């Protein structure tokens, strides 16, 4: 049997890159996709010969179409990209930022999954990456939480509609990746220490924590229609 081929949209950094490493170690052929070619090249060098890098802007339907055409048939799709926009107190959060959060996450996840269908093996899988904000009650996350909830809501619907293709999701808690680079190093350290204190396991997550969950959802043929919250217990409050 030939190696399964997994495509990771958002595979040049953070959770997507860690997932690429994990799947390569599990014997998959891996294609990573992202917008920035320098970032993609750097990730591809790190991953080695078994990985191919493809330029794709998930927010641009033409770019998505040509990326999938160049990749060809594959087995598993991981959607590991998103947006940093839309956080802030409900009373004052900038509506343009909230809208941008939906534009950068919800529509590209929807459109990329749709465009992948002709190339996906019927018994393959799609794994969406949402966020714990979709499932918890953290003040200040109404905008970003609603966008991630929209992504999580796709999971059971698509699992029922696209069967036997399996469709799942992962909702990470706070994970130490370049997603947080909008903060200075000092502020980031303080924010992470604060989140670690609120998290029952006593630390923020690493990209590998989420990669392992994604690899589980891909490899377990009895998982479909589920969103796993992988947050060290952050959603429980503290
Ligand atoms: N880190 C966290 O604490 C955390 C928590 C909860 C949920 N999440 C979610 O996890 C996902 C991955 O986050 P991460 O922490 O791994 O972030 P990251 O390190 O910033 O990685 C994001 C990846 O997505 C790519 N990307 C972004 N927009 C894209 C687009 N339009 N088309 C194609 N690729 C695109 C980026 O490459 P280019 O910029 O070059 O395109 C990069 O490879 C996101 O959906 C995020 O919302 C993260």
| Order of neighbouring strands in the sheet with most strands | 3-2-1-4-5-6-7
The CATH topology label is: Rossmann fold
Give helix % range: 40-55%
**Top CATH class:** Alpha Beta
Unreliable sequence segments: none
Largest sheet: 7 strands, parallel
Order of helices and strands: EHEHEHEHEHEHHE
Q: What compounds sit in this structure?
A: NADP nicotinamide-adenine-dinucleotide phosphate
Sum up the overall morphology in one term.
Answer: globular
Under CATH, the homologous superfamily reads: NAD(P)-binding Rossmann-like Domain
CATH arch. level architecture: 3-Layer(aba) Sandwich
Number of strands: 7
Number of domains: 1
Number of helices in the DSSP assignment: 7
Structural class: alpha/beta
Mean pLDDT, all residues = 97
How large, in whole angstroms, is the Cα Rg? 17 Å
Classify the beta-strand content into a percent band: 15-25%
Terminal-residue CA separation: 48 Å
């Amino acid at each position: 049997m030939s190696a399964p081929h997994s495509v990771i949209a958002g595979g040049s950094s953070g959770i997507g890159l860690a997932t690429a490493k994990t799947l390569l170690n599990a014997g998959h052929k891996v294609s990573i996709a992202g917008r920035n070619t320098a970032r993609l090249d750097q990730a591809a060098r790190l991953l080695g010969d078994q990985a191919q890098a493809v330029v794709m802007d998930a927010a641009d339907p033409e770019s998505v179409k040509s990326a999938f055409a160049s990749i060809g048939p594959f087995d598993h799709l991981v959607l590991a990209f998103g947006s940093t926009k839309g956080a802030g107190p409900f009373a004052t959060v900038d509506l343009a930022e909230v809208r941008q959060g939906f534009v950068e996450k919800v529509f590209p996840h929807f459109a990329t999954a749709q465009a992948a269908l002709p190339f996906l093996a019927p018994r393959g899988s799609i794994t969406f990456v949402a966020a714990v904000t979709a499932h918890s009650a953290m003040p200040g996350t109404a905008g970003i939480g609603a966008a991630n909830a929209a992504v999580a809501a796709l999971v059971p619907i698509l699992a029922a509609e696209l069967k036997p293709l399996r469709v799942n999701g992962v909702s990470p808690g706070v994970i130490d990746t370049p997603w947080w680079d909008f903060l200075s190093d000092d502020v980031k350290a303080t924010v992470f220490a604060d989140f670690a204190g609120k998290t029952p396991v006593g630390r923020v997550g690493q990209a590998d924590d989420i990669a392992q969950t994604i690899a589980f959802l891909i490899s377990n043929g009895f998982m479909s229609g589920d969103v796993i919250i992988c947050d060290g217990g952050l959603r429980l409050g503290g």
